[in-house]
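Q: What would this complex look like in 3D?
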Amino acid sequence: MYAQAFFVAVFGLAAIGFGVVVFRTSSMVRSALALLFSQTAVGCMFLAMQTEFLGVLQIMMMATEMSIMAIFMVMFMMDPGGMGGMDMTHQKRFSIGAGVVAAGVAIVVAFWADWGPVTAEAPDAAMQTRALGIELLGRSMLIFETAGVTILTAMIAATAVAIPVQTTANSADKEDTE
Amino acid sequence: MNFVIVLVALLGSVWLLAVIEGWTTTGRLRLTAPLLSGLAYLGRESIVPRTPDRVFFETAPVLLLIVAVLGAAVLPLAPTLVIADLATGALFINAALAYVLVALIMAGWGPNGAYAMIGGWRFLGQLIAYAMLIVMPITAVAMRAESLVTTVIVGSQDGLWNIVYQPLGFVLFFIAAMALAFRAPFDLPTAPGELGGGVDAEYTGVRLAVLRLARLTLVITLASATTVFYLGGWHGPLLPPWAWSLIKTLAVAVSMLLAGRYLPRIREADLMRWCWILGIPLALLNIIVVGLLVLVVP
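A: Here is my prediction, written as structure tokens for the whole assembly.
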């Protein structure tokens, strides 16, 4: 019990620490990977709380997601390595205010919400995986399928937007440049 | 105790693979060559490039080694010889291998060099495509075993190995494993002769030694995963279970090596196109076929 609390605290602090690094660095890749390791620490918190499937899934998903985010940040930012001395922050006062308010709300919810009775003993990991599978293919199926189809639609739309429209005018331009 | 045995087996396999690799390239069988070249690396100067991202530069080789060993931790050599028999073993190995990508991006970005950076980002595209061909065939394997536990997966192949039960899944997984381990003909992130070493380019001395060790360990881990998921793991006559696991793992690793020696490097665009247009539909087909087999065949 104490060991569990200890590890949850250690990974929680690591998550916050990496979260701070996200904003303390000017390098976009460092920032993205710091966010990745912050999320990995959250995954480790799941593991420490004996929710094996969710923990492993979190650790797996974040690796590719944050890496993709890193390359997009490199593509779109003017100083991706942070070596040009550009100030990457803006709206500082507003963001400090928003951060403090959000943290306050989170703390209030954490202490005042009725979390229900705490489970004395977590079911074993295989049972959890099974229960999760039945939940995903039962009551929650509509929610996840809707989300999945929405994301797929967005991906197809984004790809369609990215493909240049071929008109007679710009195909002539292309031949000229070639 | 299991931890020590598996680690020794892993190191031994890496050494044998390095010996065989040297044998196929130089034509001479020298058992001490990997040790001597390892020692030579330690003796050389380990250069740090100008204005590197020092954290990434130092972390990348070590991270690659750690994820390769973590992946091997859930793969059983024998019914009880496994470091961690997790309830989510088949998912855990995916989670560990996803960080190969992170390590390579770090190795690419860290040294502040053009070739390294191109190599690192190239691997991003390569892995995002081929990770699907790792995950989807494993899904079909888990469907047959009705479990994510790796020892149960091997148990489910008693009598009929998955290479026979789902040959399409095996072919896709084998190709994807080679792409994930960035072995030739999928060695686009390093691409000797084209990118001047790519992610390896700026690494020298002890750091390069760790990187090379990590890469060979990754090959063995993936060969072991192929054995566990498709070649019946420890099943086999006469010899003890662990011996079968090791023999099959080495055979898969050597076949990856040979495939790389006789095939030219694939163009990046072709690599992506084949995966997204051909590989992923085939992986989906494999899931459907296995699903039908599981539900229809008693």
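A: To summarize the key features: Chain A touches chain B through 25 residues (CB under 8 Å). The longest helix of chain A spans residues 52-76.
Q: Very helpful, thank you.
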